[in-house]
């Protein structure tokens, strides 16, 4: 058989060229022997499939001859002419090998234009009847009935796509679908690939426009709508521009994850309950910390702590304006906000202090740095740099390791920057100096002679003013 048509689909037409032949068995007439060509005369097979024509031919042969199995071969399928009009790249007359479907005629016209309809194609038959084609149901669902065969002289009309239906939520292919008159909810859900595993099949929300500015919300049971057979009364007929929302079941497979990085025995991602988990429990799960872990420097980064957008109040506090001191301090603290949660892993792990325990949340990142074994000390010291860390050592010991204070060291303004938070603080506010901390010893402010004289002069002037006021008052 020429072409690629399956025999059960191809139909014989009077314009097809075919060949009938006898096959196996002993070709003898009923009641005697006979040699030579076999014949059953002229038979009409127009409109029958190849399979049906073969069966019909075998039956005719067996009426006259014993043991004959007939066959039929399609030598040259007919050619058909189809008119394709409307929203195709090259409208006009196309020639196809019969039988052919609507999709082949569209392809022969070099495909659809950008705004063409895929679900409302019309087929005007030579006999006057009109059929419809839905290429989406054919390509997505494999519905052959929506991609019918064409006959010679048929006209395929491809209109513009006008109305749509939008499907949101828990379906395989959420998106916009062309509306076709008579669409039901189950049909559109099928075009959207069906529902996902987490879909709430007890209800689906449908928004329907009653006017250009008015709409209403309807609810239907997906469980009933998708039941067999389709088209039950509960399966609503859709209208142009409907919006369908398929919700997810509450709490469906909700998960939470915490990442652990650095000097943990088993770093990596850990699933935690959606409501969170105590830090002590997670520490036990990842096996605790390695001997090289710097527990004082361990931090928890929480993305929700990072400011994402300035409030109206913050936008009014622009640097360089006449904001008060408290406002300036607020802006400085906000600029330093890094999303780091204030935690005390050493107290929690080493001292087993239950008050230091805290809840970890979804998205948290636990960072456990490696111990540096040093404290950095800079500024007005004789040998600035890193010195060996000694647990419990005081500032004076680290200063001595750095060669002592410089001549202009301002000992009352020493600052300590904590490794864990990066936050500078006064020495008096730091409970201890820990591994990896940075100590800054500033210099005393230099006061010039002229400035000193000016300060003294100003003081004497104020004293003179006070004396004159008192003298005048006592006269």
Automatic annotation (TrEMBL):
InterPro entries membership: Poly_export, Soluble_ligand-bd
Cleavable signal peptide: none
Soluble ligand binding domain: residues covered: 82-130, 167-209, 375-425
Alphabetized GO MF terms: polysaccharide transmembrane transporter activity
Region: Disordered, residue numbers: 1-40
Biased composition (Low complexity): 20-40
Identification of the protein by name: Soluble ligand binding domain-containing protein
Species assigned in the record: Eiseniibacteriota bacterium
């Amino acid at each position: 058989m020429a072409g690629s048509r399956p025999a059960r689909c191809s139909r014989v037409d009077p314009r097809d060229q075919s060949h009938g032949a006898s096959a196996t068995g002993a070709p003898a007439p009923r009641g005697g022997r006979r040699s030579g060509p076999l014949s059953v005369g002229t038979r009409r097979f127009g409109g029958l499939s190849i399979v049906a024509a073969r069966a019909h031919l075998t039956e005719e042969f067996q009426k006259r001859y014993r043991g004959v199995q007939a066959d039929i071969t399609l030598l040259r399928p007919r050619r058909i002419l189809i008119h394709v009009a409307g929203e195709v790249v090259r409208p006009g007359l196309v020639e196809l090998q019969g039988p052919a479907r609507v999709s082949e005629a569209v392809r022969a016209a070099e495909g659809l234009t950008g705004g063409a309809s895929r679900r409302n194609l019309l087929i005007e038959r030579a006999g006057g009847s009109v059929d419809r084609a839905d290429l989406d149901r054919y390509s997505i669902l494999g519905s052959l009935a929506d991609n019918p065969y064409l006959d010679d002289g048929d006209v395929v009309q491809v209109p513009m796509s006008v109305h749509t239906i939008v499907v949101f939520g828990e379906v395989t292919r959420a998106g916009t679908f062309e509306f076709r008159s008579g669409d039901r909810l189950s049909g559109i859900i099928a075009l959207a690939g069906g529902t996902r595993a987490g879909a709430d099949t007890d209800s689906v929300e449908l928004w329907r426009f009653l006017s250009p500015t008015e709409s209403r919300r309807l609810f239907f049971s997906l469980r009933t709508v998708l039941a067999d057979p389709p088209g039950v009364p509960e399966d609503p007929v859709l209208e142009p521009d409907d919006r369908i929302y398929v919700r997810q079941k509450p709490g469906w497979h909700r998960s939470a994850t915490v990442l652990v990085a650095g000097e943990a025995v088993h770093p990596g991602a850990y699933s935690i309950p959606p409501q969170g988990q105590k830090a002590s429990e997670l520490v036990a799960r990842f096996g605790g910390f390695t001997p090289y872990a710097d527990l004082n420097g361990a931090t928890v980064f929480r993305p929700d702590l990072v400011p994402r957008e300035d409030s109206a109040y913050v936008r009014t506090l622009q640097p360089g304006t006449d904001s008060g001191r408290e406002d300036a301090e607020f802006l400085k603290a906000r600029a330093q906000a890094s999303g780091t949660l204030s935690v005390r892993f050493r107290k929690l792990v080493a001292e087993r202090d239950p008050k230091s325990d805290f809840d970890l949340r979804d998205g948290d990142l636990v960072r456990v740095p490696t111990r540096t074994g040093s404290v950095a000390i800079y500024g007005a010291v004789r040998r600035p740099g890193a010195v060996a860390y000694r647990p419990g050592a005081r500032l004076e010991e680290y200063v001595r390791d750095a060669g002592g204070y410089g001549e202009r060291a301002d000992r009352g303004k020493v600052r300590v920057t904590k490794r864990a938070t990066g936050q500078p603080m006064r020495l008096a506010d730091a409970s201890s100096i820990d591994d990896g901390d940075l100590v800054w010893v500033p210099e005393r402010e230099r006061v010039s002679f002229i400035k000193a004289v000016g300060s003294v002069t100003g003081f004497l002037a104020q004293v003179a003013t006070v004396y004159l006021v008192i003298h005048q008052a006592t006269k």
